[in-house]
Structures are given as C-alpha cells and as structure tokens.
Amino acid sequence: MTSAFSSSDAAAIKRQVDQSECEDQTEHVTLESFWLPETLEQCASWIRDNQFLKVCLQFPDSLLVFSSIVSSQLQEHVPVGTGIFILGDTSYGSCCVDEVAASHVGADAVIHFGHACLSRSVRLPTRYVFLRYRINWDQFQTAVKAEFTDTQKKLAIFYDVGYTYCIDKITKSLKEKYHNLSVGQLAENGTQPDLLCWKLDGQTFEDSSAIYVGKDNQSFFNTSNGIKTEQWYRFDPTESKLNPADPLDSKWLRRRWYYIEKCKDATSLGIVVATLTANGYLDVVSRIQQMAKARGVRSYIISVGKINPAKLANFMEIDCFVLVGCPENNLFNSRDFFKPLVSVFECELAFNPAWTGQFPASYSADFSDVLPTGRLHKTFEPETDPNALPDVSLVTGKVRNVVSVHKEEETEVVNGCRELLLRGKNEVAQVSSGDAFQDRSWQGLEQNLGKDAPALVEEGRSGIPIKYENDL
C-alpha cells in the first residue's frame, strides 16, 4: 500500500524515465539541435573577449547527456587556465539562470543552454544557447498568406525562443508582402525587457493581428496575455496549421478565480520563494507581507528549492501559498497541491483593495508587473482606500476582512514584537507567527551538542536500496 507521498523502492529503482518528462523536450534532441561550430566559436569568443576565468555551463535534464562534449570542446577554444564547470542540477527551474549554483564555484559568467524564460539576471553575465526547433517555412508562409489576404493588414509575429535562429529568414519574404509587419525581438544578454522576454520599446499592437510560432504552453500564455492585440493566432510547426487562439482558456481561468477567492479566505499565507536571482523578488516579498499584515493574515516565508506537493504538504497549517518565481513556471497548472498555489498577481487581486470591483484587462504570471514600474501596478493604501471594506466570501458565504488595521499610536511594542492582539482594556497579548508550529510532535533534527555520548563508528550499508548487500 502506498500513500500520496511515497511509493515502493523497487518501483523507484526500476522506473524508466519518460522523455516527455524532460524539460524542453518538444522534439527529438541531438547535439546538432543546439551546438554547431559557429555556436562554439561565438561562446569561445565571448569568454575570451570578456576575459572570464570561471564559466558555468547550465544544462536542462534533456541536454545533460551532451554536457561533457560541449565542455571539452569549449575548453579547447578558451585560454589556458580558464575553468569550465558543468551545473548538473538547478536550484529551482532550468529555464532560469541559476546564479546561486554558479556562485558556489565563484563563477564569472554563465552559459545557459536550452529553453529560457529570459528573466533578467542581476549578478552574472549570461549568454544563451537555445535549441533549434524545426519548422517548415513553406507551410508557415502559405498558412499566413491564406489567412490574411489584405497586404495592408497590420501583423505582428512572436515566437518561442527555439525559433530565434531562423525567425529573420522565415519572415523576410513576408515583410515584402505585408508592409505593416512587425517581428518581436527577444531581450537577451541582460537587456531589460518591457514585457517578460520581449523588447517592445513602447510599441502597441491593439490594432494588429498577432501570430505566435510555437506550442500552446506557458510561453504563449505569458506573451498573449501580456500583449493586447486585435486577435491572436498560433502556428504550431508540428501541426502546420494557423489557428485563432484565445489567450484565456475559460476552464483554466475559472479555476484561477476560485483560487483567488480561496486566497481571500486565507488566515495564513505561505510566501514560497522560488528564485534568488530575479530582479525585484525581495520587493515583491515585502509587498505581499505588507498586504497580508494589513488584512490580518499571518505570513510565512518558505524556501524549499524545487517545489512539489509533498514539500508544501508539510505546512498544513497554511491556508494558501503564493509563488514568487519564474513567469514560465508550470506549477500553476498542477492539481496535485493540497492547498491553493497562486501567482503574485493573483495574490494582488485578492489582497489589494485597489482591485476591488475591477476586472483586469490582462493576466500576468510575471511578479515584476505588480511593482511600481510594472504595467499592472496599483498603489496599495489599506488605511485610506474606501474599497477596503469587509465583504462576503463567494466560497464559504462568511464575512471576511473584518480585522481593522490599528494606527501606529494605538499599537504597543512588546519585546520588539508588533503582532499584537487586544484582549481588553489596557491588556495586550503577544502573538508570533511561529506559534502555529510549536505544537508539532517533530520540529526537525536536534543537535544536542555535549549532551549525547559519541556514537561508535560502524560500517554502513552498501548496494542499492532495493537490496543492500548486508540485508538478510
């Protein structure tokens, strides 16, 4: 018998890894899918020109088998004494540059391979080497011309990063036919993007039809919901069809609104930090804490590396989790979590009174959009906003948000703690968010230094868990 958190050791040892589980696995991957002689020379020149002494190569799981070949070839083309290191695993997601792991060897720069979200790195120079996805140019051109007969039509083309190498080639003749054609430019090499990974330079597309080249994945969702257009179309090279696309799937969106209501009902909130490098993540954490405190919700900061349902299930006292991480994280689509897992923008809709009674014109999975420089920012003023009133939960039917925010002159400080509960006239009880975990039977390993007798050195187990050599 197995539970939701465990399975037999035999199944774990014998299980065959499905290729579809690997990230970036949209088609069969070979070394030539991303590593060509010109790519080698470009990376080597980048290292030589910048005089980097330690460079980390970051691979996703699907490309890790080629890491030794890439590393050895690159080592032969850089100056003697230059260290080339392979990152065998990532702290959070493989689409993000793992500056934390690279800092363990004191790296000067990172070369990132495979699919990338292009979230801005704040510490190390980064160069990207994308996969080269196949596309039939004739089929794409035929599909576009069949759908848009008006040569004066305003068109915009965006694409998955795997088509960066050929996007100029496949749109060259289209620009000759359609005079109002715009092609998106990726914000690479540390450039600050206007929206996720795109450099828009203030350009708008509200009167244009937009075509996205790629699969119906998180990248398409972020792009189509962040850029307002007249109509979205998606061309999947594996299907060779150009179809109209609705950025917001109705079923998915209804579930997200349900989670927002659950977030409003929460009395405790877990802020799950899934990045330590993305620009502005500390500002977002501070903003969420501020909104939660104003609403009378206890907040906890949680960092557990790569997120999965079993890890978050250890915090059953928490009613809702908000994920501060990569905008292309697909965890929001998972139904396996025991408590709601919402994005920063969804938490903003739940806790910020400025959004009361308003329906957002677009959706966002990028937490930087709620910061003061973001496109969806709204000032948070809980004490002066007239919309900050109690309301009724659409899930439970109970009245919520009845905790008023005490003014500074009405709050006392007890032993440096500002989380206070008024018990009566001139009586104040000290409350700490950590009290919720004090009654647990197991609270972690205890060192007991100097209290326990030293243990004798014994021979450990050898073999594999399914059958150790010294098992009877």
Give a structural overview.
With 472 residues, this protein is an alpha/beta fold. 23% of the residues lie in helices and 19% in strands. It contains 11 helices and 21 strands. A 5-stranded mixed sheet has the order 6-5-9-10-11, with helices on both faces. The protein has a 4-stranded parallel sheet with strand order 2-1-3-4. A hairpin with a 2-residue loop joins strand 20 and strand 21 (467-468). The two termini are 23 Å apart.
Write the layout of secondary structure elements.
Elements: H1 9-14, H2 37-50, E1 54-58, H3 67-76, E2 83-87, H4 99-103, E3 109-113, E4 126-129, H5 137-147, E5 155-159, H6 167-177, E6 181-183, E7 185-186, E8 198-199, E9 205-213, H7 218-226, E10 229-236, E11 241-245, H8 250-265, E12 268-273, H9 281-294, E13 298-302, H10 309-312, E14 320-324, E15 341-343, H11 344-351, E16 391-392, E17 399-400, E18 420-424, E19 427-430, E20 463-464, E21 467-468
Parallel strand pairs: 1-2, 1-3, 3-4, 5-6, 5-9, 9-10, 12-13, 12-14, 14-15
Antiparallel strand pairs: 7-8, 10-11, 16-17, 18-19, 20-21
Helix pairs in contact: 8-11, 9-11
From the structure above, extract its key features.
single chain; alpha/beta; four-stranded parallel beta sheet; 11 helices; globular
Question: What is the gist of this entry?
Answer:
The protein is α/β, with parallel strands linked by helices and 472 residues long. The chain has helices at 9-14, 37-50, 67-76, 99-103, 137-147, 167-177, 218-226, 250-265, 281-294, 309-312, 344-351, and strands at residues 54-58, 83-87, 109-113, 126-129, 155-159, 181-183, 185-186, 198-199, 205-213, 229-236, 241-245, 268-273, 298-302, 320-324, 341-343, 391-392, 399-400, 420-424, 427-430, 463-464, 467-468.
